Amino acid sequence: MPADLTQLIALIDRFVDADGLHRTAYAPLSLIRTSQPTLPVHTLYEPALCVIAQGRKQIILGDEIDGYAGGDCLAISVDLPVTGQVIEASPEKPFLSLKIDLDPSQLSQLILEMEVPYVQETKTTRGLSIGAMSDELADAAVRMLKLLENPKELPYLAPLVEREMLYRFLLSPHSAPLRQIAAADSHLHWISKAIHYLKRNFAEPFKIDTVARQARMSASAFHHHFKAVTSMSPLQYQKQIRLQEARRLMLSDSVDASTASTRVGYESASQFSREYRRMFGAPPARDIAQLKESLSAAGA
């Protein structure tokens, strides 16, 4: 466990005194706090490097279950629909982490400039990796947080510390997802192109040949490599994106289930209801009512 972990915990705890995701004065950096175990939450993980200071969390990606805890770091190289659940947290010892949003183009440039050793792709890499945090990465994370106390220095020094954090991670044994997303000849790089297309066009009818062309692959090769990266099929990915967006529309924009299902591309209201219930555990109207009640109780 990194020697700086105690200091990292104290700094995050100093800057955030309420549960949730908190943006900071440095745009790519967010801090996360959860003071009790949670129910499973469906969300979309976007490209990021996360440093876990305290607590424990479990995520489900496709059919795979992973966990990470204080002293670990998590890298996400492509947009991934996951189900996350904090399983170890308390008011005295909350789940605490920091997140650096990643820009793939900047990451590619960093790899080129710093001449990070290239590792030949032997198999398609999953778009998410978890591993132990190095002492050097923990030290850089501490210095990043300390900069939040110096607004005048923050805009000049934070990009340099962010660069160091990424460099430290790229030298770790679990950096393949970030290295390969930056490599133009990797399967992960091309699958990411198809993922961007699916995100932009999730409401359109799914056509495997059309999506596979975005990755410059045959339909069969695309299906194989897409599942290796995301742990789900392209059609399952589109379905999760659709259902998460429908839930957001009903909760945030107060549209009804019929309108939401049409907006996200469903032609059959009954199919939408079945798939929604399968994913979220309740029919749309009941699920949204329960969510609103839960949010109201949390704000009381």
From TrEMBL:
GO molecular function: DNA-binding transcription factor activity; sequence-specific DNA binding
Residue ranges of domain HTH araC/xylS-type in the record: 192-290
Entry keyword set: Transcription, Transcription regulation
InterPro entries reported for this sequence: Homeodomain-like_sf, HTH_AraC, Tscrpt_reg_HTH_AraC_N
Coiled-coil blocks: none
Protein name in the entry: AraC family transcriptional regulator
